[in-house]
Amino acid sequence: MTGDDPLDEGTAPQADGGERAASEPHTDGGVAGADDVTLDPWGSSTVSDYRKLFEEFGIEEFDEILADVPNPHYLMRRGVIFGHRDYRPVAEAMQEGEPFAALSGFMPTGDPHIGHKLVFDEIIWHQRQGGDAYALIADLEAHSARGLSWDEIDEHARNYLLSLLALGFDPEEGTLYRQSENREVQDLAFELGIEANFSELGAIYGFDGETDVSHMQSVVTQMADILYPQLEEPKPTVIPVGPDQDPHVRLARDLAARMRFFKVTKAYASFELTDDERALVARAYDAREEYAEDPEMPRCEGAATWLEAERATADGLPADDVTLESTVEKLENGGKEPLRPRTRFFDRQATDEAFEALIDAVEGEKRVYESHVDAFDLEVAEAEELARRLEVEHGGYGFLPPSSIYHRFMTGLTGGKMSSSIPASHISLLDDPEEGYDKVKSATTGGRETAAEQREKGGRADECPVYELYAYLLAGDDDEFAKRVYDECVGGERLCGDCKEQAAQLMREFLEDHQEKRAEVEELLEAADVTLESPRR
Ligand code: TRP
Ligand code: SF4
């Protein structure tokens, strides 16, 4: 049901604040200028300006909810995790000891590196906070979108999983799987595929007539991955990823809503309104004293006249002309019908029994229409809960829209972006510790031309890949240490030679330690419930 239903997020820009309409991230399409932000799951993602992600794509700033997160991870405290979508329900579940989940996926295209470690750490942290933790190997995606052979995939998958376990993932508590081996994910992907069509995938991902079908299938598979933790019961779920995955997150949020039996909204009269129209009617309702003979019973036609008049005033109304016109028209057609706030259950794709059961379950004054029920004594939040409960009782999924958190991309050690195709630019978790040491020693820095200049002006820690290594990894949980490096650098007390020597030693130690742990968790991995060798060839 993705047609002209005004309540469908897929067509009408609304639920997430109308952000889809303004600037859809066309991913494969368009060559982005140096300063553009592209969010491309399969391209080379660079983000030169994180502010644009907030402004253009509606990603929220993580700082704003940091205070509500119990024992935030150092990546959160240091702003490495800089953004989120709807993380609040996850934070609340954590605070209240209620169920929540964290899931992320890895395309096994090469060796796991220190960028993947960020995501491993995020999953593990949520697991330790009491969440159900999931890590999956996106082997179908790697095979279809990147053309990797099953042999290569097996080898890489094993390496990702070993590093994940070595960093502390508990495979007995958590869930590991490969896309290709998870029948439930495949089935869910098929169901979700019914709610998405080719034009939509084209608009989001820049797919065209040349895109192969399996690549598209890997998209619905990822949608199923993201919703998989909620298959047994709906729960807040966070997807920790880089911002290049945001198009996937948004589509998953849309699909989650489209699968729902009911959509709960506020309403003011018997007819349907889009979110934008509803905002206008809410304004008119609030201004009822100005036009209604009886402010207890403002009428649609009065609201229409008021809106028309408001539109002519200097400050105007927060809506475009088209919205204004359609709203006024609907109100005019409403004529003498009273405007009266209510909570509406819109029947999106409920079974008949579920709809009947809902009608019975609504308490207080209610009015039943062909495809919606209006409740006059129910708040929206209570109504949401009721709708979800009945949906689940009648065999629906009741999905909550999945949440996400986004981490910054690391700068490459050679400057520019960190890329797995440039070995010197990144550190693989499998690098020989001495090689790791050397890479850090030869990294570019934010230092000055001469030591004298550095003492005088201080270094540019904010532009220094070596400082990033401290903040993202080497300082671990020790905020004071990270801050000391920063302060000493910008204060001119720290010189790059020594600073790199210290970082290089820490990197060597980290790699030694990590690789030792990888060896130790071999058995744990063998015992884990995940296929290490694909039967596919
Ligand atoms: N597309 C992701 C990547 O390119 C991998 C992935 C598959 C994933 N399924 C997922 C990530 C679910 C997060 C959640 O790395
Ligand atoms: Fe970077 Fe350290 Fe040099 Fe500062 S002192 S610019 S942090 S290498």
From TrEMBL:
Motif stretch ('KMSKS' region): 417-421
Residues that span the membrane, as ranges: none
The enzyme's E.C. designation: 6.1.1.2
InterPro entries documented for this protein: aa-tRNA-synth_Ic (IPR002305), Rossmann-like_a/b/a_fold (IPR014729), Trp-tRNA-ligase (IPR002306), Tryptophan-tRNA-ligase_arc (IPR020653)
This protein's UniProt keywords: Aminoacyl-tRNA synthetase, ATP-binding, Coiled coil, Cytoplasm, Ligase, Nucleotide-binding, Protein biosynthesis
GO terms of molecular function: ATP binding; tryptophan-tRNA ligase activity
Amino acid composition bias (Basic and acidic residues), ranges on this chain: 17-27, 450-459
Subcellular location: Cytoplasm
Keyword Membrane part of the UniProt annotation: no
Transcription regulation among keywords: no
Ranges where the record places region Disordered: 1-40, 436-459
Coiled coil: 500-531
Catalysed reactions, semicolon-separated: tRNA(Trp) + L-tryptophan + ATP = L-tryptophyl-tRNA(Trp) + AMP + diphosphate + H(+)
GO biological process: tryptophanyl-tRNA aminoacylation
Any one cellular-component term (Gene Ontology): cytoplasm
Gene3D superfamilies: HUPs, Tyrosyl-Transfer RNA Synthetase
Location of the motif 'HIGH' region: 108-116
Family: Belongs to the class-I aminoacyl-tRNA synthetase family.
The protein's name in its UniProt record: Tryptophan--tRNA ligase
Organism this protein belongs to: Natribaculum luteum
